[in-house]
Amino acid sequence: MNLTETGQSRVNGYLFVLERSLKTFLPTDVVRDAVREIESHLRERIATSDGSPNEREALERILKELGPPLQVAKAYSAERIVDEAIATERFVPMLRAVRHLAVTTVVGFGAALGILIGYLFGLAFLSLAILKPIFPENVGIWVRDGHESLRTEFPWRLGGQFPIPPGEHVVGGYWVIPICLFLGLLVLVLNHRGTMKFLNWWRNRRVS
Amino acid sequence: MEQLRRGGLDLAILLAVADGPRYGLAIIQHLEAFTDLVVGEGTIYPILGRLTKEGLLDASWVEGEAPHPRKYYRLTRSGARRLREMTAEWRGFADKIDRLIAATAKRGEDRL
């Protein structure tokens, strides 16, 4: 089947959408190669098609069998998403990879749950550091009234409470801020490293 | 079943190029002739890309053979080794499931 100008525009439009979608997460040289391969596939399919009942329907059938460009891009994303996260070590690709593994595998789901809890802990510590200067009476280490020493109040309860519960108050001062900042950053860094280790383990497991 | 299909697809693609290099569409047509693993033609190319990146396949563009260039895939040495392992694993897995099905069917007959 030889394509008319309209048919050619339809193919170009398909490849354009595919290229734009792939460019959002793949390096340029990989995108160029992938689009070239899909174009080669389409050219071959078109060349061997008898064009029945008409060009439009024959072309739509070929494109349908290939799949919508966004679906094809999604398939590339699923295959490359972990590699991208490991290569860039950036937060967003890493979260995207963890999310992908969480919805496709049981191990990934368990790991994603652990990673989410880790990030929440880190963010909670940082939130306390930010809130302490704004609400000094509501954020800190909590003790029952009459227990002014941390030695008599164990386990320690660090956090923020709104409003202040009766019979309790915070002890200590603004030294809670550097401690919370340190703990928050430590938890976030360790969690990030743990996530990268998990993704590396996952990739090596897939390759081996 | 989706996990099984995905696992089977890697093996099927390696098998498709085991007896010589094939280009993308030829691999798809080979798989379609023997299996129903291909649910969308466009989903095969990303898998071919991954297998190439993992060093199991080697890819190269060939021009002049057709009016358009074709990207051929061939099995690498490491791919051939992986194919042997996957084939053995698959046969072992299928044997166990077959035995389980046979045993379940036999117990069902005995109860009747």
Number of helical regions of chain A: 7
Tally of extended strands of chain B?
3
How many strands, which pairing sense, and closed or not: the largest β-sheet of chain A? 3 strands, antiparallel
For the largest interface, the chains and their residue counts are: A-B, 27 and 22 residues
Fraction in helix of chain B: 55-70%
Strand order of the largest sheet of chain A: 2-1-3
Mean pLDDT of chain A: 87
C-alpha end-to-end distance of chain A = 44 Å
Oligomer: heterodimer
Give helix and strand order of chain B, one letter per element, not per position.
HEHHEEH
N-to-C order of helices and strands of chain A:
HHHHHHEEEH
Which structural class do you get from the secondary structure elements of chain A?
mainly alpha
* SS class of chain B: alpha+beta
Low-pLDDT windows of residues of chain B: none
* Biggest beta sheet attributes of chain B: 3 strands, antiparallel
Please count the helical segments of chain B.
4
What does the model show?
- The complex is a heterodimer of chains A (208) and B (112).
- By secondary structure, chain A is mainly α.
- Chain A is 71% helix and 7% strand.
- In chain A, strands 2-1-3 form a three-stranded antiparallel β-sheet.
- Chain A starts with a helix and ends with a helix.
- Chain B is an alpha+beta fold and 112 residues long.
- Helices cover 63% and strands 12% of the residues of chain B.
- Chain B is built from four helices and three strands; from the N terminus they run αβααββα.
- Chain B has helices at 2-16, 24-34, 44-53, 77-111; strands at residues 22-23, 57-62, 70-75.
- In chain B, strands 1-3-2 form a three-stranded antiparallel β-sheet.
- In chain B, strand 2 and strand 3 (70-75) form a beta hairpin.
- The two termini of chain B are 30 Å apart.
- The mean pLDDT of chain B is 90.
- The chains are: A mainly alpha (208), B alpha+beta (112).
- At the A-B interface, helix 2 and helix 4 of A face helix 3 of B.
